[in-house]
Design goal:
By secondary structure, this protein is mainly alpha-helical. The protein is built from 8 helices and no strands. The chain folds into 2 domains: 5-77; 84-250, no CATH class.
Length: 252
């Protein structure tokens, strides 16, 4: 807690008030010395008895003023340091959130270019038989795309830990909606893989397969139109906006 200016001034005034008797005592000593030379030596002896303690009080008061000023300066420094730290964590959180948004948008792109497919084949070391398999090729592309999402999410979670250190458990409520979007997307990707493999073994009737796949692909693939985001894109945008509203006070 900071120390007010009034407290510093009060201590200084105390020091001045204590010093006053010394000045008046000196004046009295000079007056009495003019009247009687013999009595001066006795007065000097009396003054010396209380001048020492008063001097110690003045020194202590000056030290107190210095300590109060230092304490106040430390309080201001701590406040400024906490403000800078909050600013950095808030900015990092929001930047990580936008990185997740960009990585998810890239992941959900329904278009797979030939160059991207070839890169996925090489990166994952698919043999020729799997390269000719449409499912395996698509799975390889999605796996490569997910690495960007995973990296962005890891950075976001690291910043989330710092946010909880500064703002406590309250911060968890700001972060959960976006994390839930990433978890939902990953959950549907894994369900898509299982569904495809089960379908190849004849584990589903055709109408059952299409019904399940349609629900999954609504999340896996971006079906947004011009000025009309799909439901999952809207959900992510709302999660990021909620986070932005919570941390913007620390960014101003």
């Amino acid at each position: 807690m900071g120390i007010s200016n009034k407290a510093v001034i009060s201590v200084a005034l105390f020091a001045l008030l204590v010093a006053a008797p010394i000045r008046s005592g000196g004046q009295q000593l000079r007056a009495e010395g003019a009247d009687a030379q013999g009595g001066a030596e006795a007065d000097i002896s009396n003054v010396s008895e209380w001048a020492g303690p008063i001097k110690d009080l003045i020194v202590a008061a000056a030290a107190a003023v210095t300590a109060v000023a230092a304490w106040r300066g430390l309080s201001v420094w701590r406040k400024e340091t906490k403000g800078r730290r909050s600013f950095e964590v808030a900015r990092r959180l929001l930047r990580n959130a936008y990185q997740i948004e960009a990585a998810v948008r890239s992941f959900r792109n329904p278009l797979q270019r030939a160059s991207e497919i070839e890169e996925a084949h090489k990166e994952l070391g698919l043999d020729e038989s799997k390269r000719q398999d449409a499912f395996e090729s698509m799975r390889a592309v999605l796996e490569l795309r997910w690495r960007l999402v995973s990296e962005a999410w890891a950075n976001f979670n690291a910043s989330a830990v710092e946010a909880r250190v500064i703002w406590g458990d309250e911060a968890q409520g700001w972060l959960t909606p976006l994390s839930e979007c990433v978890k939902q997307l990953w959950g549907d990707v894994t369900r898509w893989v299982r569904l495809e493999r089960a379908s190849r073994r004849g584990g589903f009737k055709e109408n059952e397969y299409h019904e399940k796949m349609e629900a999954i692909e609504e999340v896996m693939y971006d079906t947004s139109g011009e000025g009309r985001p799909d439901m999952f894109s809207q959900k992510m945008a709302e999660a990021i906006e909620q986070l932005r509203q919570k941390v913007r006070g620390y960014l101003e």
